[in-house]
Amino acid sequence: MYEPYPVPELAREHKRIRYSSLWDFAKQDLRLLAFFLIIASFIGFGIGYFWICIVIAFVAFFATQMRSLYLVNEWISNRPYDVPPNIGGIWGALLFNVYRAQRQERIVQAEMVELIDRAQSSLVALQEAVVLIDENQQIEWWNPAAERLLGISSDDRGRNILTLLRQPNFIEYYHHIDESPDGLKMRSSLFEDHYVQVKMTRFGGESRVLVAYDVTRMHNLEQMRKDFVDNISHELRTPLTVLSGYIETFTDQEDINPRWKRAFDQMQSQTRRMNALVNDLLLLSRLENDKNIAKNQIIEMPSLMNQLFDDAQAYNMDYGHTLNLDIDSHCDLIGSDMELASAFSNLITNAIKYTPKGGTITIGWHDDGESAYFVVQDNGIGIDPKHLPRLTERFYRIDSDRSRRTGGTGLGLAIVKHVLMQHQAHLEIESKENQGSTFKVVFPKERLSFPD
Ligand code: ADP
């Protein structure tokens, strides 16, 4: 649980201090007044001017009070941090209380300053860059790591951060930080081939704290992984084509020995699986590399839906499900037709594969004026909710044997996720084990085209 930073001991102590009671000190003044009055009465009676002496006693008492008031004022105005003058009575008590409160306040202040100093020195020692940006986008404070990683220099205090980090993706991120909760990976403006991960958080209204760290090593490793998968997939493609060609020729021979026939059939199904795997890997790597290529063809959805439905019926031959097509939207999509068709068809083949024979599968296209929905609903084996968050990871399979038996590569939903990301769409999955699943792709308004 979040624990607030402990309030310094003395600050708490401060609240418990009991101040001197003013009444005790007021009694001193009253005693002095009484003393003056008694003396004045005696003298007044003695010399026969009683009331005049009483008035003089009041004036004398008033004068002592005025002197104290003068000393208090002089102390507060000129040397409030010095020990206060020694005054008796109510003014003395007041002075002492003010002095004590002030001293406590100074101690608390000193503790706070030390705390701020410690916080600041820990930020200075960090390897990660930290930059404070005020509500006017101006740089307020930064640590030395920010100079190394982001190139901020001492002249940049008060400079607009967007004139310093000018990459379009950073500007986009700055204006929409809520849309990228993981922050942004961007090229370093200082060193070529260096990458930094930047994350910003709002505080105190529109001020922001920016944290950045070097991810060049991670970026390079990731790139190596991509290149490796890409190369190996390309290298496997040619031998696989040759193998499957020969295997097909042998399987097609009519006079083939039945003992060999079974072996060739198996070889054929395994080479098909490997081919599917290589194709999916290549498609994934292309999707990763094509991130920034504009995807803005107009895709006529009714015709794509019919084509997908025909393909689904062909694939459904071995399964015998009842397939339904449910289109109640006239809107078209803006995107890449090949990629979207491949994502949609992955969802449809999954529904067919993971539904026991004789099930019902409905493929739908709907819109509500704001968003459009491509929906595939089945009444198949369903998915335990604990698997849902990881389902779109590469090679994540709930039941590897079943997936292998059905010819799955474990890459289908990863491909779907990438294609959708490139179209600013997202996938919603609802599923109950042994009851069925609904995979819904939600497209935002900017990806829709409504025919006039
Ligand atoms: P695979 O090639 O194994 O089908 P996917 O990435 O397409 O790989 O799917 C990942 C896993 O999600 C599958 O192995 C399967 O367990 C589960 N899955 C996908 N679609 C469905 C569905 N319609 N019904 C039940 N499980 C599904």
Keywords:
13 helices, ATP-binding, single chain, alpha+beta, membrane, five-stranded antiparallel beta sheet, Beta-Lactamase, five-stranded mixed beta sheet, 4 domains, disordered N terminus, binds adenosine-5'-diphosphate, Sig_transdc_His_kinase_PhoR, Helix Hairpins, 452 residues, phosphoprotein, transferase
Any overview of this molecule?
The chain is an alpha+beta fold. It is built from 13 helices and 13 strands. The strands form 3 sheets. It has a 5-stranded antiparallel β-sheet with strand order 2-1-5-4-3, sandwiched between helices. A hairpin with a 7-residue loop joins strand 3 (184-187) and strand 4. The two termini are 56 Å apart. Residues 1-17 have low confidence and may be disordered. The structure holds adenosine-5'-diphosphate. The site of adenosine-5'-diphosphate has 23 residues, from helix 11 and helix 13. Residues 346, 350-351, 354, 378, 380-383, 391, 396-399, 403, 408-414, 437 line the site of adenosine-5'-diphosphate.
Give a brief rundown of this model.
With 452 residues, the chain is α+β, with helices and mostly antiparallel strands. The chain has 13 helices and 13 strands.
Please describe the topology of this protein.
Blueprint: H1 9-16, H2 22-47, H3 50-78, H4 89-125, E1 129-133, E2 139-142, H5 144-150, H6 161-164, H7 168-175, E3 184-187, E4 195-203, E5 207-214, H8 216-252, H9 258-289, E6 297-299, H10 301-315, E7 322-327, E8 332-335, H11 337-353, E9 360-367, E10 372-378, H12 400-405, H13 412-422, E11 426-432, E12 436-443, E13 448-449
Helix pairs in contact: 2-3, 2-4, 8-9, 9-13, 10-11, 11-13
The protein binds adenosine-5'-diphosphate.
Residues 346, 350-351, 354, 378, 380-383, 391, 396-399, 403, 408-414, 437 line the site of adenosine-5'-diphosphate.
